[in-house]
Amino acid sequence: EAVAYGAALQAAILSDAAGVRDDADLKDLLLMDVTPLSLGIETQGELMSVLVKRNSRIPTKKTQVYTTCRDDQPQVPIRIFQGERKLTKDNQLLGEFTLGGIAPAPAGRPQIDVEFAIDADGILHVTATDQATGLHRGLTIRRDAKTQSLSEREIAKMVADAEQFDAEDAAAQVKIEAKSQLDSQCDRLLRATWADDADPALGVALGDDAKERLAARLRDVQKWLLKPTTFDLCDAADFRAKQTELDDFVKGLVADAKQARQPSSSSAPTMTTPQRDEDEDDDDMPELVEVDDVGAESAPPAAQTLDGGATWVEEID
User: Fold this and answer.
1) Could you read off the pLDDT of 172-191 as tens digits, one per residue?
2) What DSSP assignment string belongs to 22-60?
């Protein structure tokens, strides 16, 4: 009878029949399986993006949308971690796979659905799907897998370390995001610089001389970002200051370009009307899109870049 009662109770828990999980009389009597550590994937800058939080009740299913960080990025790696730290290097890698076949598109435009589903047996199913093509790949991670088998002491240490280094991790995360935003801004402006027509990123078509000046400035910033010592010696404020300098420089070029397009007030009146460029469109306004660190029209946020053939994904809120 006890076995039958227990089985019935467990079935009710799994199906949440009649709201049994929230029943005040039963809440203290129920023994539920929970995730001992948070589960997520690695995003730009080797940051941990959590999909399933620690102590989530099993079974559970969570989905988050991610995007690419580079123009025409053909594939994204899905690296699965468990742990409580903000950087994946401090967490435990459970498995990884690559989703390919992504159609060429500007950075930030592809939409990749990543789903974490944990069944009643504690088996984790991870699936990544490209919304545009429907292509998908996945990975199954079993609870008894060697890579996932942590002792209670190891789990407790990981949780304690996350609390101990919380402030340090938060500062590192802010710095990574600031660096990523600057890197993404450079990529976005480079794409806009050589556009034939006015680009939403600039609002006006630049002349050849202005394009060369902007391209040179962007190359200088990118070289600075690639220096091995830059990240170690700088903090988030330094990256923000560099981005402010770049923004001010771009504003100056745009202002000059717009001024050059205006008819001179000192010119003698004529019977002609200033001609409008055929490609100019009053409705060509910048599109607002919500992403984690930067606009979807940018090449990422989130941060990291395509180094050594590796590609990254960034999170979209």
Assistant:
1) 999 999 999 999 999 888 88
2) G-TTTTTT----B-SS-EEEEETTTEEEEEE-TT-BSSE
Taking residue 50's Cβ as centre, other Cβ atoms within 10 Å add up to: 21
Query: What pLDDT sits at residue 9?
Result: 61
**Distances in whole angstroms, Cα of residue 144 to Cα of each of 71, 84, 94, 156:** 39, 20, 12, 19
CA distance 147 to 83: 13
- Round to whole Å and give the CA distance between 312 and 171: 21
Instruction: Report the DSSP beta bridge partners of residue 82.
Output: 39, 92
Mean pLDDT estimate for the chain: 79
Both tokens of 127, joined, read 């699936």
DSSP string, 153-196: HHHHHHHHHHHHTHHHHHHHHHHHHHHHHHHHHHHHHHHHHT-S
The DSSP line for 196-210 is SS--TTTSSPPPHHH
Contact partners, residue 124, CB within 8 Å, separation at least 6 = 39, 80, 94, 116, 117, 118, 140, 141, 142, 143
| Least confident piece of the model among 27-31, 164-168, 239-243 | 27-31
Give the pTM: 0.71
Distance CA 257, CA 263 (A): 12
Q: How far is CA 283 from the centre of its chain?
A: 29
Per-residue pLDDT, 166: 97
Tell me: cis bond preceding 59? Omega within 30 of 0 counts. Answer: yes
